[in-house]
Design brief:
- By secondary structure, the protein is mostly helical.
- The chain contains seven helices and no strands.
- The longest helix is centred in the last third of the chain and has 19 residues.
Amino acid sequence: MMNNITATRLASLRKVKSERDGRRVSAQEVADAVGISRSTLSGYERGHDQPGLATLLALATYYGVTIDYLTSTDASVESPDNIAHDEEERLLLQIWRRLNQDQRGSWMALLRSMVHEDAA
């Protein structure tokens, strides 16, 4: 029996994606996107089977979350704020992860100044 957190989150993420996309996202669509069968995905969402690392990575990428979000009971990864809401947010996160500390500091200063200017 797999981690119930993972099963719950996988089922929940498909519903969230449906709401965000404004249409029903089928299990078949998700399965096709990550290269597994619909019945395999169903087994994961119901907690009857456990995905391997490659499949976890594919599912996390598809939904725009981390593997930690899919598998961890750590409270710091439970927040829905840890889920990218659209392609632009996913891209920003990918770019952010490539930056070194100095680059991150520069970008944060720029972003803070932009937000401060908008608030004024």
